[in-house]
Amino acid sequence: MSQFIKTYGRIRPSANGSAASPLAATDKAVNVDLDNGRKTYELHRIFNSTATQEDVFVCVSKKIVEDSADGFNGTIFAYGQTGSGKTHTMLGPSNSWSDPELKGLIPRSIEYLFELLDAKTREFQKFTFSVNVEFVELYNEEIYDLLNLKNKVQLRDLGKEIQLDGAKSETVDNSLDLMHVVQRGWTSRSTGSTAMNNESSRSHALLIIKIKTQEVTGGLVKERSSTLNLVDLAGSERQSHTKATGDRLKEATNINSSLTVLGRCIRILSKPAAGGYVPYRDSHLTHILKNSLGGNSKTAVIVNMHPDREFLAESTSTLNFAQSCALIKNAATRNEVMTGDQENSYKKAIQELRQEVDETRAKVREEFGKKLDDAEEMQRRLTKENDLLKAAKIDLQSQLDLARVKYLFNGDTEQSLEEHKKLISSLSDDNVSALYTLKLEKEASEKRCHQLQQHLNELRSQYEINLSETLRLQTPSGKKRSTRSERRQTLYRPSPDTLAEREVEERELAERLEEANTMICKLESEKQTLQSKWENATESLVEAEKRINQLESDKSDLIADKEKLSEELESVIKDNEENVEKISKNHDTLEGLLVKIDDLNKEIKNRKQEKVAIEEKHGKEMEEITNHHKSVKEELESQIRNLSASNSSFSESQKEANEKVELLQQQLQSQLQELQEEKSALQKELANKTQLLADAKNDAKDCSKTSSELQSNIVEKCEMISTLKKKVEENDSELKIKAELIVSLEQDIAKKAELIKQQAAKLDENVIALSEQNSMKRRIEEAIAIEESWKKRYAALEDRRQTEFNDHQRDIKTLKAKKDAELKGYKETLELKSNQLKEQGAKAEKQLSQSKEVFDKKMEEMQQQFAQLSTDALKKQEEKIRSDSSLQWESTIRDKQDEITELRNLNEFYSKQHDEDSHAIANMMNTKQGKVSYVEKIRLEKIEQEKTIIQQRAQIARLSKGQREANRPVLRSRNQEAAPQ
Ligand SMILES: Nc1ncnc2c1ncn2[C@@H]1O[C@H](COP(=O)(O)OP(=O)(O)OP(=O)(O)O)[C@@H](O)[C@H]1O
């Protein structure tokens, strides 16, 4: 039977944690968020990152393993880019050896396979199995034996299967041994690293498990063989993503080439209508998987994907691959060979069938007995009911007779007619209903009786078939038995007395029948008119029913609408609640913000107060400082003024003094110069005079001679000297006075200098004071500057605070505005929704009220109609009952007629039978020869039957020989298969 390859998707957990994934998985589809829109890929099942290994195993692998244990080939392979979780899915993570929860498909499949095989061994006595395993790796388009790396493996295509020549095949008895083999092989597997995965498997790993089972039943040997391929493919990513170079690039190229061939094969296989050539032989991978792709295998493909956006291209190409795989049809057949002694096995099967027949027969007998009892019970009940009906009929008849008598004797036709009518109506009222119910009951019981009869007939026929089959099988030469109907007929032979009674009854009934017939004719015409009325009423009833149904459907529609609306209302209420929640949250945050704002306001207030206090303090200080400064300034200014005044006066006096000193010094210097000149002139004169004196003395000496003259000269000279001396003395005193004047002047100058000095010191002091005042002024200026800067900073701070405050206020305002807008929006949507709902509700209510009105109107109409109809119906029912009673009459009359005819037939039959029997008895009594011939006839029949049995045996022998002949090539082919192994 062909079936599509099952494709499953598995999305591993994200490597980026919380980053949004472009893959959104549902149970059976993956919605991919592409740049140019969304695309949906539908697969058999999608496992998201939370799916467990057990989930994957149960869904993907379990059935395939079960089928492989039953003789079907199976393949499971994992496809996807590197690091997408193929090995995780197939084998499990490296720590899965210790954590059984993480075990992948391979260990789980192996365990389950052995569980199944062991269970079969326990269930069937003669069931044996053998499991062989091969484990190979395709790496760089070379096949490596993972169970012995030294082996050289070659592919051999045997048509039906692909053999791996040279690969080690290990026989295993249990799952543990097989897992050891897998573990051993896996460690030999080539692994390398790429940019995408540190433990990337660069090769395709194929675990090939070959299962053979043998089951012996009777002489029949059932041999089944199957191969289970579990494949972990290498990463399917683009080379550019791997950043591979050198050997890695070669690997990637080879991996890609084999996967490209795989993709090509799958694409061709997915379009069988195109009928292209499938290039299985283009790569070892597709050559080995030939049977799994479009061949004799039950195949499942699991595609692994990364959920992260960076791998989106790989994920989409993987999903495209999966979708192509899902279009491939495989035709898996059970690999089974049957051998052994077929004759014996048939005999055994016949024996088993006989046993079964016996068992069923016993069962049927039991059931038949039960049903027979039921039927008898039913028959008893029916006869009882029949008796009751008969009694009612007699009662009615007597009443009818009475009415007829009254009618005949009263002569008043009209009155009698009325009475007659009344009688009929009373009859209808009292008895007709009872009759009607009886009729219904009778109909039901007849139906049941009929069903039982049918069942009885079926059982009988089955029983007879079984019986005849059993007789045929067990006593082929047995006597021919009389048929059941013959036997039954002999059982119901009536006595002559009952026959006479029946004849009397028959006559009576015929008379009544005639009377009833006339009445029936009358009633017939009435019945027809009523029938037409009834039909009309039924039509109107049907219409009314239709309308009711229509209304009912309208009502249900309205109810559905109402439910929808209530659902919508609920959802809106939910939304509202959410909104209210949001609003309350926002309100909370708003409140928090308002509290913050309050706090900020308070802080601002406090700051303001502080500021005011600081300002006050500062103002006071400033005032003090300015006052102090003012006073100091004023003082300093006055001092400066004084100083400058004194300074100017001092400088003037100093100037004057200086001028005076200078003048004096000039005078003194000039006087001193004059005096010095005079002194030098006097000293010159003195020197001249001393010269002259010396000359005079020399002259006096020389002129002693001229003593007189000289004396006179001397006297003159002495006189002159004394005058000169006088003059010198005068000059000296004058000089002395002048020196004293100079000294006094010097003293004056020194005094004045001292004064000046004092004044200068004072001035210095003043200057110092002034400088101090200046420094003070400077300090004050600095303080003022600092104050200015502080003021500036304060102003800046104030500005900042103000701007911040403004920003805060603006933020708060915007936030408030936003929240208000949101709130307004919510309120508006709420209002809108509530309005809509109100409108819808009003509409619905309107509709409801309208429909209710319509409904009520219709109901009223209906009720009226019903009332009318019910009165009509009552009348009709009455008439119907009347007609039914007439029908009843009719049917009972017909029944009775039938009974009579049946009795007549029976009578005829019995008389005939009687004649025949008597004739036969006479014959049998008279001719003994007849019996002998009868025995002879039976003997001949027996001989005939024996002959046919012998012929059948011969035929069976021929057939079994033919079968053996037919089996021979199968055995030969099996031997041929066994030989290369
Ligand atoms: N479903 C998952 N749940 C948890 N971890 C997973 C899952 N799938 C994959 N991983 C982790 O992702 C990593 C890479 O997975 P794995 O080795 O199975 O990828 P791969 O497709 O076989 O890569 P390569 O093709 O290179 O062999 C491993 O650490 C594995 O444990």
* Domain unit count: 4
How does the overall form come out from the CA principal axes? Answer: elongated
Radius of gyration: 71 Å
CATH homologous superfamily identity of the largest domain: Kinesin motor domain
Number of helices: 14
From the N-terminal CA to the C-terminal CA, the straight-line distance is 29 Å
Q: Which segments are poorly predicted (pLDDT under 50) over 5 or more consecutive residues?
A: 192-199, 427-431, 474-494, 969-981
What is the strand tally?
17
Attached small molecules: adenosine-5'-triphosphate
Helix content: over 70%
| Structural class by secondary-structure content | alpha+beta
CATH structural architecture of the largest domain: 3-Layer(aba) Sandwich
Characterize the main sheet: 10 strands, mixed
CATH topology label of the largest domain: Kinesin
What average pLDDT do the residues reach?
Answer: 75
Briefly, what CATH class of the largest domain? Alpha Beta
Strand share of the residues? 5-15%
